[in-house]
Amino acid sequence: MTLLSDIPVILVEDDHTLAEATMQALEIDGAEVGHFDRADNALDAIDRNFGGVVISDIRLPGIDGIAFFERLRAIDETIPVILVSGHGDVDMAVAAMRNGAFDFLTKPFSSERLAASIAQAAANRALVLENRRLRDRLDRSRAIPGDSAASERLRTLVSALAATDVDVAIAGARGTGKTHTASLLHDLGPRRSRPLVTIDAGTALHPDAELLLFGRDPGAGLSHTGLIERARGGTLVLDKIEGVEGALRARLDTLVENRTILPLGAERPRKLDVRILAVLPEGMVSDSRTLLHRSGPIEIALPSLAERREDIAEFFSRFVARHEREFGITCEAIGADVLNHIHAHEWSGNLRELDAFAKKLVIGSGASDGSAGGERPARGLRDQVAEFEKAVIENALREAKGSVPLVEKALSLPTKTLYDKLSRYGLKAKDFRQGGKAS
Protein backbone atom coordinates (compact mmCIF):
# COMPACT_ATOMS: atom_id res chain seq x y z
CA MET A 1 0.00 0.00 0.00
CA THR A 2 1.37 3.41 -0.99
CA LEU A 3 1.42 6.52 1.21
CA LEU A 4 -1.71 8.10 -0.29
CA SER A 5 -3.66 4.98 -1.25
CA ASP A 6 -7.26 5.83 -2.25
CA ILE A 7 -7.13 9.33 -0.74
CA PRO A 8 -9.33 11.71 -2.78
CA VAL A 9 -7.47 14.90 -3.67
CA ILE A 10 -8.93 17.97 -5.36
CA LEU A 11 -6.18 20.00 -7.04
CA VAL A 12 -7.02 23.56 -8.12
CA GLU A 13 -4.18 24.94 -10.23
CA ASP A 14 -4.32 27.02 -13.44
CA ASP A 15 -0.69 26.28 -14.40
CA HIS A 16 -1.22 23.11 -16.45
CA THR A 17 2.44 22.15 -16.47
CA LEU A 18 2.64 22.29 -12.69
CA ALA A 19 -0.74 20.57 -12.39
CA GLU A 20 0.38 17.64 -14.59
CA ALA A 21 3.60 17.20 -12.60
CA THR A 22 1.77 17.36 -9.27
CA MET A 23 -0.93 14.94 -10.38
CA GLN A 24 1.60 12.46 -11.68
CA ALA A 25 3.54 12.49 -8.39
CA LEU A 26 0.39 12.11 -6.27
CA GLU A 27 -1.08 9.34 -8.43
CA ILE A 28 2.19 7.39 -8.16
CA ASP A 29 1.68 7.59 -4.39
CA GLY A 30 -1.85 6.19 -4.83
CA ALA A 31 -4.02 9.30 -4.53
CA GLU A 32 -7.21 9.74 -6.57
CA VAL A 33 -6.71 13.20 -8.04
CA GLY A 34 -9.30 15.45 -9.63
CA HIS A 35 -7.92 18.60 -11.28
CA PHE A 36 -9.66 21.92 -11.85
CA ASP A 37 -8.14 25.09 -13.27
CA ARG A 38 -10.83 27.28 -11.68
CA ALA A 39 -12.02 27.24 -8.07
CA ASP A 40 -15.68 27.84 -8.94
CA ASN A 41 -15.72 24.58 -10.94
CA ALA A 42 -14.11 22.67 -8.07
CA LEU A 43 -16.86 23.74 -5.65
CA ASP A 44 -19.36 21.54 -7.52
CA ALA A 45 -17.29 18.46 -6.61
CA ILE A 46 -17.08 19.10 -2.86
CA ASP A 47 -19.73 18.67 -0.20
CA ARG A 48 -19.87 18.19 3.56
CA ASN A 49 -19.10 14.48 3.20
CA PHE A 50 -15.97 14.98 1.08
CA GLY A 51 -13.43 12.57 2.53
CA GLY A 52 -10.22 13.91 1.05
CA VAL A 53 -7.92 16.90 0.85
CA VAL A 54 -8.08 20.11 -1.21
CA ILE A 55 -4.92 21.67 -2.64
CA SER A 56 -5.33 25.15 -4.08
CA ASP A 57 -3.06 27.78 -5.56
CA ILE A 58 -3.76 31.22 -4.12
CA ARG A 59 -3.56 33.11 -7.41
CA LEU A 60 -6.32 31.78 -9.68
CA PRO A 61 -8.60 33.18 -12.38
CA GLY A 62 -12.08 34.08 -11.10
CA ILE A 63 -12.31 33.12 -7.44
CA ASP A 64 -8.84 33.28 -5.88
CA GLY A 65 -7.53 30.68 -3.45
CA ILE A 66 -8.37 32.67 -0.32
CA ALA A 67 -11.97 33.25 -1.38
CA PHE A 68 -12.17 29.57 -2.40
CA PHE A 69 -10.95 28.59 1.06
CA GLU A 70 -13.68 30.72 2.67
CA ARG A 71 -16.31 29.08 0.45
CA LEU A 72 -15.06 25.64 1.54
CA ARG A 73 -15.29 26.65 5.20
CA ALA A 74 -18.93 27.58 4.59
CA ILE A 75 -19.53 24.03 3.29
CA ASP A 76 -17.66 22.37 6.15
CA GLU A 77 -15.00 24.14 8.18
CA THR A 78 -13.17 20.84 8.83
CA ILE A 79 -12.35 20.13 5.16
CA PRO A 80 -8.51 20.18 5.05
CA VAL A 81 -7.15 22.78 2.63
CA ILE A 82 -3.49 23.06 1.63
CA LEU A 83 -2.68 26.43 0.06
CA VAL A 84 0.14 26.82 -2.46
CA SER A 85 1.74 29.98 -3.82
CA GLY A 86 4.85 32.10 -4.21
CA HIS A 87 6.79 34.06 -1.61
CA GLY A 88 4.73 37.21 -2.14
CA ASP A 89 1.58 35.55 -0.79
CA VAL A 90 3.00 34.43 2.57
CA ASP A 91 1.06 36.99 4.63
CA MET A 92 -2.25 35.95 3.07
CA ALA A 93 -1.45 32.28 3.61
CA VAL A 94 -0.51 32.82 7.26
CA ALA A 95 -3.81 34.62 7.82
CA ALA A 96 -5.65 31.73 6.15
CA MET A 97 -3.89 29.21 8.39
CA ARG A 98 -4.99 31.19 11.43
CA ASN A 99 -8.53 30.83 10.08
CA GLY A 100 -8.22 27.06 9.72
CA ALA A 101 -6.22 26.21 6.56
CA PHE A 102 -4.34 22.95 7.15
CA ASP A 103 -1.00 23.89 5.56
CA PHE A 104 0.78 26.33 3.27
CA LEU A 105 3.50 25.39 0.80
CA THR A 106 5.73 27.90 -0.93
CA LYS A 107 6.71 27.18 -4.54
CA PRO A 108 8.82 25.33 -5.40
CA PHE A 109 8.10 22.45 -3.02
CA SER A 110 9.04 18.78 -3.12
CA SER A 111 6.52 16.06 -3.92
CA GLU A 112 7.57 14.32 -0.68
CA ARG A 113 6.67 17.41 1.38
CA LEU A 114 3.29 17.67 -0.31
CA ALA A 115 2.55 13.95 0.09
CA ALA A 116 3.40 14.06 3.80
CA SER A 117 1.07 17.01 4.33
CA ILE A 118 -1.74 15.30 2.41
CA ALA A 119 -1.33 12.09 4.40
CA GLN A 120 -1.58 13.93 7.71
CA ALA A 121 -4.53 16.04 6.53
CA ALA A 122 -6.36 12.94 5.24
CA ALA A 123 -5.84 11.13 8.54
CA ASN A 124 -7.31 14.10 10.41
CA ARG A 125 -10.25 14.26 8.01
CA ALA A 126 -10.95 10.53 8.35
CA LEU A 127 -11.08 10.92 12.13
CA VAL A 128 -13.48 13.88 11.88
CA LEU A 129 -15.82 11.99 9.54
CA GLU A 130 -15.71 8.82 11.63
CA ASN A 131 -16.61 10.76 14.77
CA ARG A 132 -19.38 12.47 12.85
CA ARG A 133 -20.67 9.11 11.65
CA LEU A 134 -20.60 7.73 15.20
CA ARG A 135 -22.59 10.72 16.46
CA ASP A 136 -25.04 10.31 13.60
CA ARG A 137 -25.45 6.62 14.37
CA LEU A 138 -26.18 7.44 18.00
CA ASP A 139 -28.73 10.01 16.85
CA ARG A 140 -30.22 7.39 14.54
CA SER A 141 -30.59 4.73 17.25
CA ARG A 142 -34.28 5.49 16.86
CA ALA A 143 -33.89 7.07 13.48
CA ILE A 144 -37.41 6.21 12.37
CA PRO A 145 -39.51 7.36 15.33
CA GLY A 146 -43.10 6.53 16.02
CA ASP A 147 -45.30 3.77 17.43
CA SER A 148 -47.76 3.55 14.55
CA ALA A 149 -48.11 0.38 12.52
CA ALA A 150 -46.74 2.27 9.49
CA SER A 151 -43.62 3.31 11.41
CA GLU A 152 -43.09 -0.19 12.77
CA ARG A 153 -43.28 -1.65 9.25
CA LEU A 154 -40.91 1.00 7.89
CA ARG A 155 -38.40 0.45 10.73
CA THR A 156 -38.41 -3.30 10.14
CA LEU A 157 -37.98 -2.93 6.37
CA VAL A 158 -35.19 -0.35 6.53
CA SER A 159 -33.32 -2.37 9.15
CA ALA A 160 -33.53 -5.51 7.02
CA LEU A 161 -32.52 -3.82 3.77
CA ALA A 162 -29.67 -1.83 5.37
CA ALA A 163 -27.92 -5.12 6.12
CA THR A 164 -28.05 -6.20 2.46
CA ASP A 165 -26.42 -4.95 -0.72
CA VAL A 166 -29.48 -4.91 -2.97
CA ASP A 167 -30.57 -1.90 -5.01
CA VAL A 168 -33.55 -0.11 -3.49
CA ALA A 169 -36.09 2.31 -4.92
CA ILE A 170 -37.41 4.75 -2.30
CA ALA A 171 -40.71 6.35 -3.28
CA GLY A 172 -43.07 8.69 -1.51
CA ALA A 173 -44.90 11.97 -1.59
CA ARG A 174 -42.95 15.20 -1.09
CA GLY A 175 -41.66 15.68 2.41
CA THR A 176 -41.94 12.04 3.53
CA GLY A 177 -38.19 11.66 4.12
CA LYS A 178 -36.91 9.94 0.99
CA THR A 179 -33.33 11.28 1.08
CA HIS A 180 -33.18 10.70 4.84
CA THR A 181 -34.17 7.05 4.27
CA ALA A 182 -31.46 6.70 1.63
CA SER A 183 -28.90 8.02 4.13
CA LEU A 184 -30.16 5.55 6.74
CA LEU A 185 -29.76 2.59 4.38
CA HIS A 186 -26.14 3.63 3.86
CA ASP A 187 -25.27 4.64 7.44
CA LEU A 188 -26.76 1.54 9.04
CA GLY A 189 -25.24 -0.87 6.52
CA PRO A 190 -21.88 -2.52 5.82
CA ARG A 191 -20.81 0.27 3.41
CA ARG A 192 -21.15 3.03 6.03
CA SER A 193 -17.37 3.63 6.17
CA ARG A 194 -17.25 4.23 2.42
CA PRO A 195 -18.55 7.27 0.48
CA LEU A 196 -22.19 8.22 0.08
CA VAL A 197 -22.56 10.21 -3.15
CA THR A 198 -25.82 11.78 -4.33
CA ILE A 199 -26.55 12.78 -7.92
CA ASP A 200 -29.57 15.03 -8.32
CA ALA A 201 -31.37 16.45 -11.32
CA GLY A 202 -29.32 19.66 -11.21
CA THR A 203 -26.08 17.72 -11.70
CA ALA A 204 -27.53 15.26 -14.20
CA LEU A 205 -28.88 18.08 -16.40
CA HIS A 206 -25.71 20.21 -16.19
CA PRO A 207 -24.14 21.00 -19.62
CA ASP A 208 -20.98 19.12 -18.53
CA ALA A 209 -22.90 16.30 -16.85
CA GLU A 210 -20.92 13.50 -18.54
CA LEU A 211 -17.62 14.98 -17.33
CA LEU A 212 -18.99 15.67 -13.82
CA LEU A 213 -20.49 12.21 -13.46
CA PHE A 214 -18.09 9.94 -15.35
CA GLY A 215 -14.85 11.91 -15.29
CA ARG A 216 -12.00 12.02 -17.79
CA ASP A 217 -9.36 9.35 -18.29
CA PRO A 218 -5.72 10.41 -17.66
CA GLY A 219 -4.86 9.40 -21.22
CA ALA A 220 -7.25 12.02 -22.59
CA GLY A 221 -5.48 15.04 -21.09
CA LEU A 222 -6.12 16.46 -17.64
CA SER A 223 -7.75 13.66 -15.67
CA HIS A 224 -10.83 14.14 -13.55
CA THR A 225 -12.47 11.64 -11.21
CA GLY A 226 -16.23 11.70 -11.77
CA LEU A 227 -18.82 11.80 -9.01
CA ILE A 228 -19.93 8.24 -9.75
CA GLU A 229 -16.45 6.80 -9.35
CA ARG A 230 -16.06 8.65 -6.05
CA ALA A 231 -18.80 6.37 -4.70
CA ARG A 232 -16.55 3.32 -5.28
CA GLY A 233 -17.10 0.82 -2.50
CA GLY A 234 -19.96 2.90 -1.11
CA THR A 235 -23.44 3.98 -2.07
CA LEU A 236 -24.68 6.02 -5.03
CA VAL A 237 -28.02 7.79 -4.64
CA LEU A 238 -29.86 8.79 -7.82
CA ASP A 239 -32.20 11.54 -6.66
CA LYS A 240 -35.12 12.08 -9.03
CA ILE A 241 -33.08 12.00 -12.27
CA GLU A 242 -35.55 9.90 -14.25
CA GLY A 243 -35.87 12.67 -16.85
CA VAL A 244 -32.30 12.18 -18.18
CA GLU A 245 -32.21 11.19 -21.86
CA GLY A 246 -29.84 10.52 -24.76
CA ALA A 247 -26.20 9.50 -24.41
CA LEU A 248 -26.10 10.23 -20.69
CA ARG A 249 -29.12 8.00 -20.10
CA ALA A 250 -27.40 5.19 -22.01
CA ARG A 251 -24.29 5.58 -19.86
CA LEU A 252 -26.35 5.49 -16.66
CA ASP A 253 -28.29 2.43 -17.86
CA THR A 254 -24.97 0.64 -18.42
CA LEU A 255 -23.85 1.60 -14.92
CA VAL A 256 -27.03 0.23 -13.34
CA GLU A 257 -27.11 -3.00 -15.34
CA ASN A 258 -23.40 -3.88 -15.52
CA ARG A 259 -21.78 -1.85 -12.74
CA THR A 260 -19.27 -0.43 -15.21
CA ILE A 261 -18.36 3.14 -16.16
CA LEU A 262 -16.51 4.55 -19.15
CA PRO A 263 -14.80 7.88 -18.37
CA LEU A 264 -14.41 10.34 -21.22
CA GLY A 265 -11.42 9.35 -23.35
CA ALA A 266 -11.11 5.88 -21.79
CA GLU A 267 -10.71 2.90 -24.12
CA ARG A 268 -12.20 0.27 -21.83
CA PRO A 269 -14.94 0.37 -19.21
CA ARG A 270 -14.06 0.07 -15.52
CA LYS A 271 -15.82 -2.16 -13.04
CA LEU A 272 -17.38 -0.28 -10.14
CA ASP A 273 -18.36 -1.79 -6.80
CA VAL A 274 -21.26 0.37 -5.68
CA ARG A 275 -24.75 0.03 -4.23
CA ILE A 276 -27.41 2.07 -5.99
CA LEU A 277 -30.42 3.68 -4.34
CA ALA A 278 -33.04 5.56 -6.34
CA VAL A 279 -35.17 8.34 -4.85
CA LEU A 280 -38.43 8.61 -6.76
CA PRO A 281 -41.72 10.50 -6.66
CA GLU A 282 -44.71 8.60 -5.31
CA GLY A 283 -45.92 5.81 -7.59
CA MET A 284 -42.97 5.86 -10.03
CA VAL A 285 -41.13 2.66 -9.04
CA SER A 286 -42.64 0.63 -11.90
CA ASP A 287 -42.39 3.49 -14.42
CA SER A 288 -40.19 2.53 -17.38
CA ARG A 289 -38.47 5.95 -17.22
CA THR A 290 -36.76 5.11 -13.93
CA LEU A 291 -33.14 3.96 -14.08
CA LEU A 292 -33.68 0.96 -11.81
CA HIS A 293 -36.79 -0.22 -13.67
CA ARG A 294 -35.12 -3.10 -15.51
CA SER A 295 -33.14 -4.31 -12.51
CA GLY A 296 -36.30 -4.91 -10.49
CA PRO A 297 -35.33 -3.12 -7.27
CA ILE A 298 -36.90 -3.69 -3.90
CA GLU A 299 -39.26 -0.84 -3.09
CA ILE A 300 -39.67 1.19 0.07
CA ALA A 301 -42.94 3.11 -0.11
CA LEU A 302 -42.78 5.83 2.52
CA PRO A 303 -46.00 6.52 4.41
CA SER A 304 -47.50 9.97 4.51
CA LEU A 305 -47.95 11.73 7.83
CA ALA A 306 -51.69 11.12 7.44
CA GLU A 307 -50.94 7.38 7.69
CA ARG A 308 -49.05 7.83 10.98
CA ARG A 309 -50.96 10.59 12.73
CA GLU A 310 -50.34 9.07 16.15
CA ASP A 311 -46.62 9.73 15.57
CA ILE A 312 -47.04 13.46 14.96
CA ALA A 313 -46.39 14.41 18.59
CA GLU A 314 -43.08 12.52 18.70
CA PHE A 315 -41.90 13.93 15.39
CA PHE A 316 -42.86 17.43 16.51
CA SER A 317 -40.97 17.02 19.80
CA ARG A 318 -37.85 15.90 17.95
CA PHE A 319 -38.02 18.74 15.44
CA VAL A 320 -38.46 21.33 18.18
CA ALA A 321 -35.53 19.89 20.18
CA ARG A 322 -33.29 19.89 17.09
CA HIS A 323 -34.08 23.52 16.25
CA GLU A 324 -33.57 24.55 19.88
CA ARG A 325 -30.04 23.14 19.63
CA GLU A 326 -29.52 24.67 16.20
CA PHE A 327 -30.48 28.21 17.22
CA GLY A 328 -29.49 28.13 20.89
CA ILE A 329 -33.05 28.92 21.91
CA THR A 330 -35.09 27.34 24.70
CA CYS A 331 -38.64 27.20 23.43
CA GLU A 332 -41.28 28.74 25.65
CA ALA A 333 -44.13 26.61 26.93
CA ILE A 334 -46.24 25.13 24.11
CA GLY A 335 -49.89 26.04 24.49
CA ALA A 336 -52.87 23.76 24.03
CA ASP A 337 -53.72 25.63 20.81
CA VAL A 338 -50.41 24.52 19.26
CA LEU A 339 -50.87 20.91 20.37
CA ASN A 340 -54.40 20.93 19.00
CA HIS A 341 -53.13 22.39 15.74
CA ILE A 342 -50.43 19.79 15.14
CA HIS A 343 -52.96 16.99 15.63
CA ALA A 344 -55.78 18.57 13.62
CA HIS A 345 -53.78 19.95 10.66
CA GLU A 346 -53.68 17.90 7.43
CA TRP A 347 -49.87 18.24 6.88
CA SER A 348 -50.04 17.71 3.12
CA GLY A 349 -46.33 18.58 3.04
CA ASN A 350 -45.70 15.73 5.48
CA LEU A 351 -42.59 15.73 7.70
CA ARG A 352 -41.01 18.65 5.85
CA GLU A 353 -44.03 20.86 6.58
CA LEU A 354 -44.17 19.76 10.23
CA ASP A 355 -40.43 20.44 10.57
CA ALA A 356 -40.86 23.92 9.06
CA PHE A 357 -43.68 24.65 11.52
CA ALA A 358 -41.50 23.53 14.46
CA LYS A 359 -38.62 25.70 13.22
CA LYS A 360 -40.87 28.74 12.88
CA LEU A 361 -42.26 28.14 16.37
CA VAL A 362 -38.77 27.92 17.93
CA ILE A 363 -37.49 31.03 16.13
CA GLY A 364 -40.66 32.92 17.09
CA SER A 365 -40.23 31.82 20.70
CA GLY A 366 -36.67 33.14 20.77
CA ALA A 367 -37.75 36.42 19.19
CA SER A 368 -40.59 36.89 21.65
CA ASP A 369 -38.55 36.57 24.84
CA GLY A 370 -35.16 37.64 23.52
CA SER A 371 -33.44 34.70 25.19
CA ALA A 372 -30.80 32.46 23.69
CA GLY A 373 -30.54 30.02 26.51
CA GLY A 374 -31.72 29.86 30.07
CA GLU A 375 -33.43 27.07 31.88
CA ARG A 376 -36.10 24.94 30.27
CA PRO A 377 -39.60 25.63 31.60
CA ALA A 378 -40.66 23.30 34.40
CA ARG A 379 -43.11 21.60 32.06
CA GLY A 380 -41.04 20.93 28.96
CA LEU A 381 -42.40 20.11 25.54
CA ARG A 382 -42.14 16.35 26.00
CA ASP A 383 -44.19 16.54 29.20
CA GLN A 384 -46.82 18.66 27.49
CA VAL A 385 -47.02 16.33 24.48
CA ALA A 386 -47.26 13.31 26.79
CA GLU A 387 -50.08 15.00 28.72
CA PHE A 388 -51.89 15.71 25.47
CA GLU A 389 -51.40 12.13 24.25
CA LYS A 390 -52.75 10.77 27.53
CA ALA A 391 -55.83 12.96 27.14
CA VAL A 392 -56.39 11.69 23.59
CA ILE A 393 -56.20 8.06 24.74
CA GLU A 394 -58.48 8.75 27.70
CA ASN A 395 -61.03 10.34 25.39
CA ALA A 396 -60.84 7.38 22.98
CA LEU A 397 -61.31 4.92 25.86
CA ARG A 398 -64.26 6.92 27.09
CA GLU A 399 -65.93 6.99 23.65
CA ALA A 400 -65.22 3.26 23.13
CA LYS A 401 -66.50 2.48 26.65
CA GLY A 402 -63.22 0.72 27.43
CA SER A 403 -63.18 -1.50 24.34
CA VAL A 404 -59.48 -1.96 23.47
CA PRO A 405 -60.15 -3.16 19.87
CA LEU A 406 -62.25 -0.05 19.19
CA VAL A 407 -59.51 2.22 20.62
CA GLU A 408 -56.89 0.46 18.49
CA LYS A 409 -59.01 1.11 15.41
CA ALA A 410 -59.81 4.72 16.33
CA LEU A 411 -56.16 5.62 16.97
CA SER A 412 -54.59 3.24 14.40
CA LEU A 413 -52.36 1.77 17.10
CA PRO A 414 -51.00 -1.79 17.21
CA THR A 415 -52.18 -3.77 20.25
CA LYS A 416 -48.73 -3.87 21.90
CA THR A 417 -48.22 -0.13 21.40
CA LEU A 418 -51.59 0.71 22.93
CA TYR A 419 -50.94 -1.46 25.99
CA ASP A 420 -47.49 0.11 26.37
CA LYS A 421 -49.07 3.56 26.42
CA LEU A 422 -51.80 2.48 28.83
CA SER A 423 -49.12 1.22 31.19
CA ARG A 424 -47.00 4.38 30.75
CA TYR A 425 -49.92 6.66 31.62
CA GLY A 426 -51.42 4.45 34.34
CA LEU A 427 -54.65 3.90 32.42
CA LYS A 428 -56.82 0.77 32.66
CA ALA A 429 -59.41 -0.05 30.01
CA LYS A 430 -61.76 -1.61 32.61
CA ASP A 431 -62.08 1.78 34.32
CA PHE A 432 -63.80 3.14 31.21
CA ARG A 433 -66.34 0.36 30.76
CA GLN A 434 -69.93 1.01 31.69
CA GLY A 435 -70.17 1.22 35.41
CA GLY A 436 -66.43 1.94 35.75
CA LYS A 437 -65.12 4.81 37.84
CA ALA A 438 -64.05 6.89 34.80
CA SER A 439 -67.16 6.44 32.71
TrEMBL record:
Q: Does the keyword Phosphoprotein apply?
A: yes
Name the keywords, alphabetized: ATP-binding, Nucleotide-binding, Phosphoprotein, Transcription, Transcription regulation, Two-component regulatory system
- A GO BP entry: phosphorelay signal transduction system
Q: Which parts of the sequence belong to the Response regulatory domain?
A: 8-122
Enumerate the GO terms in the molecular function aspect.
Answer: ATP binding; sequence-specific DNA binding
Give start and end of each Sigma-54 factor interaction domain.
144-363
Per the record, residues carrying 4-aspartylphosphate are: 57
Q: What is this protein called?
A: Response regulator
Q: Which organism is it from?
A: Alteriqipengyuania halimionae
